[in-house]
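Many introductory courses stop at the sequence. We go one step further.
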Amino acid sequence: MMTNRTLIKTTLCIFICLSFICNVSASDKDSTSNKISHLFGLDFRPAYVFPSHDFFKGDNNAQKEISTTLSGHLKYGFQFSPDSKFGELYPYAIQGVGLAYNTFFNSAEIGNPIALYAFQTSRIATISRNLSFDYEWNFGASFGWKKYDSETNPKNRVVGSSTNAYINLGFLLNWEVAPNTNIRAGIGLTHYSNGNTSYPNAGVNSIGASVEITRYLGRKAEKRFSPAASAGSIFSPYINYDLIVYGAVKRKGIFPEDHDPVLAPGSFGVLGLNFNPLYNFSQYFRAGVSLDLQYDESANIVDHIANDFIPSESKDLKFYRPPFREQFSSGLSLRAEIVMPIFSINIGIGKNFLCKGRDTNSFYQIFVLKTDITKNVFIHTGYQLYKFKNPNNLMLGLGIRFNAR
């Protein structure tokens, strides 16, 4: 199976890239290593698990609701010097890596997964000299899930792989209680999924609190100024052009009329290309329209079942290959992108205009993390949904940025 390998490689690429850029930045004359400040954090996050499946409502071997999760996080981050290029443009941005231990208080059926992730946090608004309103995102992979097994774990029809993607978005109040020591508290949303690389893939979602204590090393007194005013005086709007090629593998569930769902045997390939012109409104935000081309080997196979009747075993299910035009789609999406050092978050919503069949004739939504390798090359790690709720596929690839500044 390629499921776990794909997710692991994706996560490793993010962290290798982050380490590479840290080294490059450390050797840059504007961001020398002795000017970078370091952050160490300890974070606890109790959360409520959404009862999105009967398994969480008590239809499990323990016959108890799974409504609570608790995670502990160790984090390392770094912040560029205020007199460096990145530090001047993004004075409050901190990026780094985190390691988390999670429990759902039912280790026998769901496990106690460990998450390894990249994170970035920055200020949204200054409330007072020692208090600010911040955001933080986490993106990585979680390992050690107890996955569904028809014999050993038949009730868990939520998690289909031992490795799953991990995504978290939080909003926090950041209080500087002493020089270089902060307490941050707030709320956040967490999502675990394997991007349809294995079945089942119902996803695990939670909302909860976060309480964190952080300690800075090597940070001097913070400059109190408005980053928008500083960067705005020298920034001139421009257009850059992102060209992305991506691929993935996925599993496919079949939902025939008047029949129970069936898992199609084997894995299916996905290949895509995005061409995304983006107008840079500021150093922090750009937006535009993307031309999205995708070939999905699993699209519309339900309309080409070769069996005279649906077999009881999924391994006996056979298909005729659908014509290319039923598995290829072309769409346009509106894209908005938040730009920070090393990472950019790109969100899009679109509609296929060249397509045929129920699987591709749809609105789609895209969430992407771009990790810069150089000014012109980045790693593209994304996730696509259909109709705002149906997981479709991962988007793992490489991008080239033209007219980058």
